[in-house]
Amino acid sequence: MSEDQRIAQYAHPNSLVTTAWLEENSSSVVIVECDEDVLLYETGHIPGSVKLDWHTELNDEHKRDYLTGPQFAELMNEKGIGRNDTVVIYGDKSNWWATYAFWVFKLFGHEDVRILNGGRAKWIAEGRELTKEVPTPQSKAYPVVERDDRTIRAFRDDVLDHLGLPLVDVRSKPEYTGERLHMPDYPNEGASRGGHIPTAASIPWSSAILADESFKPVDELKAIYFENTGFNPADKFVAYCRIGERSSHTWFVLKYLLGVSDVRNYDGSWTEWGNLVGVPVAVGEEPGVVSR
Amino acid sequence: MNLRATEIAEDFNFLPEKDRLQLLLEFSENLPPLDPKYGEHPELLERVEECQSPVFIAVDGTADQIRLHFSAPQEAPTTRGFASVLHSALDGLSAQEILDTSDDFPSALGLDKLISPLRVRGMRGMLARIKRKTRELNS
To answer: Taking every annotated instance into account, which residue ranges of this chain make up the domain Rhodanese (chain A) (predicted)?
Structure first.
């Protein structure tokens, strides 16, 4: 099956573009690179793309939260993004931070945001052009839009209410079982308990991608997220990881590729849950049960 | 803190915040290539588990002059930058000078607001391993 055919089968095929499409259409969209490595953009990026730093630009400086409406509008003006623009986001690490940025754009209701299938790695692997030339964006007077945290974002109390409903832990297996407090080879981010939220299914984020970092065909994704878990796509879902970036990737898969209409990303994730006083934690391979 | 480390920290802090990343990028581009004896024998290198990207180190030499070797991929410029800063600050110093370097050197670069704490901690991990291996060589 070609990549175009794969994309056509997803629930929202317009949310993904191929590298070939982007190369042809780069002048009619705004391309945004959002990486984990803050220096990667400077080493070479897709021509015309602007850099978005997840750490310093999407988060409030003083509070563990995202930008406010006026701050987001200011950011969009700096990046030369208009409210009606088509924004294509790509990045390193299989698009973790690209999907995270996508999710933040959706908190502000930006209509037309798309992910570059396969991200930075696929673009480079195909030998497509990179440049060090940095564009100078012009403000397009982005309106101030209030952030909507109700529909795609879950807070800890939402998760407590959600226990027993489809909950997806996208971290690595040793993090899920509680053997490790963080991803293998990653530094600890300071959770005082290891394990997972009781009843959560373990589906590591990487289950959703192929070797070239593009997304798997829809039938394979359905098997992984629904058939193997017994979850029903009509149910309400919550996904979490450690700080909310890998779970944005899974949130994107569930919502845009598989068409789950009610799915929220718990961005507090394990750095919050693993430190919360009094909440239940399950350890080991089994999802565990809720004791109320 | 040794003189070279102090000077590097001063160079970073002298710059406005935004330009500090550019300096780190320059360090990243100037990380010396891996000595062939390690390139051909990667098992002699130790992986720095604290780092988000694959980075490997080796420490050899004598108590009078410790040599540092780093391997980090091109697609991880921040990690390469940190490795290169440590190389510039510490390579060729005596074991005692390396052990006397402040554990807080990574934070002294003034990058904490620009780079997530997670990554700066990765550099601390590299420094901790360099010191441990220096101690092992010395014992």
So the answer is: 25-132, 167-282
